[in-house]
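Protein in question filed below.

…
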Amino acid sequence: DIIITTKVHEAILDELSLRPFDINVRTIKGVVELSGLVNSRDDMDKAIAIARKIEGVKLVRNDMRTYGTGDY
C-alpha cells in the first residue's frame, strides 16, 4: 500500500495543474482515498483519473472538497 500511495502522490504532483493543491493520499488494501481542497470538480476528476491509472489500485474514494463548497 505504501508503494501505491507513493506512486499516486508522485503522479498527482507530475500534473502541473494539481501541484498548487495539498491532495492527501492514503491507501488501504489497494483502496486509495484522496482528500484535500481543490478549486473545481474538474481538478477532482483529474486527480481521480490519475489515481485510477496506477497499477494495484482497486478503487478510488474521493473525499476532496472544493474551496467554494464551505465544506472545509
